[in-house]
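An example makes the point: we let one protein speak, the chain in one-letter code, the fold tokenised, and here it is:
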Amino acid sequence: GSQYVYSGAAYTLLQLVMEEVSGLPFTDFMDQEVLQPLGMEHSTFDYSATSQFSKALVYQVDGRIREPKRFTALAAAGLYTCTADLGKFLLANLSDPSVLNPSTLQTMATAETFINQVGVYGLGPHLYSQNDANSQIIGHDGSGNNAINTAARVDLMSRSGIIILETGHYDLASSLADEWLFWKAGVYDFVVMTRNRSYLLTLLVSGYVVLLLGFGLVLVRSRKK
């Protein structure tokens, strides 16, 4: 393609391709090929199977509880999981050959999409610490869906990571993971900067206001002299 555009719908098309090639429903394929091999016993793409799990309540921004939504776009927005199972998934990105071999994992973590000449996406994961020689952080965040926000990131070099799943706020998980990224790698990437644009603009405007007030005060005092 000639340009990059983020697309959750593309994963829905991939879901259909996987079903066509494997001859299995997407839920069964993911269970057999990913979830079971990784020991993710409390994860599923099949909503009917979630009755056996203790599910967290879903809060809206006003504090009210609502029923979880169900999506036909399972590959993009249909995984029911927990932090412990997501931890197993992140660890599999390090060296676990039970699902993908090491060369495939390395290919996934290699930049394929660039913004301002900086690699931001590999084949699936987002690349977070491109400008830091001492870390290689990959992962992905999820947001929207009436105040549900998730963040999962792992440093392939130090083998450390962070997982946050929350409801009731649109970007709390991502914001906390951004702080971890800054602490870990000392950098903010393009996507993180974009997500915090309003906050950064507020700081910038506030800084200009302080400078203008200070400059005005200096002028007033100099004229009095």
User: Anything to note?
Assistant: The chain has two domains: 9-188, 197-225. Helices lie at 9-22, 26-35, 74-77, 83-92, 102-108, 172-185, 190-195, 197-224. The mean pLDDT is 85. The first helix runs from residue 9 to 22.
